[in-house]
Amino acid sequence: MKYKKSLGQHFLNSKSILNIIRDASDVCPEDIILEIGPGKGSLTEILTIFAGKVVAVEKDRTLIGGLKEKFSEAIKHNRLEILEEDILNFDPNILSFYKDFDYKVVANIPYYITGAILRKFLGAKYKPELMVLMIQKEVAQRIVARDKKESILSISVKAYGKPRVVKNVSKKYFKPQPKVDSAILLIENISNDFFKKINEKRFFEIVKIGFLHKRKLLLGNLISGGLGTREKIENIFKKIKLSEKIRAENLSLKDWEQLCFELSTKE
Description:
The protein is of the alpha/beta class and 267 residues long. Helix 1 packs across helix 2 and helix 8 (200-210) crosses helix 11 (253-264). It is 37% helix and 18% strand.
C-alpha cells in the first residue's frame, strides 16, 4: 500500500507492541472500537478479532482500497467499517447509533494532531470510556507529569480521566522510522464527573490564565488576568492553603478545582 508522507504516518511493525496496545484497550466482543488512522491495517487486524465492531477512520485515500480488500470478510460480516474522513472532522456522536455500549478509541496517531485529538474526544458530548494512543514519548510524559510539573495539557487530560504510560516504544519499531521515541498512553475512567460542581468552560479559562506566563507566580497571573484584586486572591490562597509563591505547574488537579470554585463563587 502507498501512503502520503505529508500526513505524518509511521506504521508500527511489531506484533508484540500491537498486542500490548490490544491488552491495554481491554478489548472484548461487546466493544465498539474507533481506530484512528488504520494505515496498512496491522492494528485493525487484531482489533477485528477481539472487538464486536471496529470503526476505522482513515484520511489517506491511497490506503482505503487496500484496507477494503484486506478486510473484505470483516466488512462483509459487519465487524469492520472503514470511513474515508479526517478524524478532526469526525462526529463521535454517530457512534451512539451502533449499540447501546460505550466506545473506545485505539490509535497510532500522527504526533502533530495529538493535542487536537485529545481535545476533540475528551471534550465531546459522547465521550469514549477509554483511549489508548501511541504518541510521542515526551508528550506522554508531560501528560502524566512524570517530572511532577503539571501543564495545561496534563490538567486538561486529568480533568476527564486517569492517564498513565503503559510502555515506552523505540522508534525502531516503526516504518518509516520517526525521529523520536513513542509511548503507549492509556486514559481510562473518562467522564464529565469532575465538572459536576464547577463550570467546564470557566475551569479552563482559569487554568489558561494561570499558565499565561510560566515564569511568573500564579498569584500575579491571576491578578493580571483580571480574576480579582490582590486582596481577594490572597484571601482565596489562604483559604485553600496555597502559597503565594506557588507557580501554576505546582498545582494538583484538586488545587485547580478548589481555586476555580472559589474564584467562581459570588461574594
